[in-house]
Amino acid sequence: MKKIIHKAHQRGSADYGWLKANYSFSFANYYNPEKIHFGALRVLNDDAIDAGMGFGTHPHDNMEIVTIVLQGALSHKDSMGHQATITPGEVQVMSAGTGVQHSEMNASSSTTKLLQIWVFPDTQNVTPRYGQKKFDPADQQNTFQNVVSPKDDNDGKALWVHQQTYFNLGNFSKNTNHSYTIKQEGNGVYIFLLEGEITIAGETLHTRDAIGLWDTQTISFTAESDSRILLIEVLMY
């Protein structure tokens, strides 16, 4: 097993006044040659947006974009004609493909916190598409719930993207032991600890720490406190 540790305090950061951002990988004005991507995982931004503010209309292409709202609400509007509000418990996916423009604004009266995640696609210049779904937290108790999977390996319960990647969310009680088996040979796992404390691969992670693991088939960890985890299985290259 190989591993890489990304501590919360070692992330890039930016304060735009209305936006407080933490970057797990190089993004915008933050550049770290050792943190460009983890396999096909290119961006994991931990954003906090002030009330009444947000990202005006801007373009994307050839990227699979996943948004997970942790607090507050986010309004979305795009050039495909979609208008939606995303709230905690919901996940949004967007295949930018040949090109799309969208805006994202805080739709609540207080700070909205969210994860913006980009994954390189396995197919270029696809037709842009949009998906959004609400997931029941009860299905994440002491287990992982799959919320995003590849188009060709999707049971209809999760959203899908154009890449061999699986996004999973789980809430684990203190002293819970859990294992995750990698679904596709050659994939790795990037674990982002949203809350709590876990021990994994001989390391202790705290809130907003992350670990990347590859060249292994099974990942095991212990929740040292009540913990919420985002686990992304992703193609390595």
Describe, in plain words, how this protein is organized in 3D.
This protein has one domain: Jelly Rolls, CATH 2.60.120.10. Helix content is 0%, strand content 56%. It contains no helices and 22 strands. It has strands at residues 2-6, 12-15, 19-23, 41-49, 54-60, 64-71, 74-78, 83-86, 90-95, 100-106, 112-119, 129-134, 144-150, 159-161, 166-172, 177-181, 187-195, 197-200, 203-206, 210-214, 218-223, 227-235. It has a seven-stranded mixed β-sheet, with no helix packed on it. Strands 2-3-4-11-6-9-12 form a seven-stranded antiparallel β-sheet, with no helix packed on it. A hairpin with a 3-residue loop joins strand 2 (12-15) and strand 3 (19-23). GO terms for molecular function: metal ion binding. Fe cation binds at residues 58, 60, 102, 104. Keywords: Iron, Metal-binding. Belongs to the pirin family.
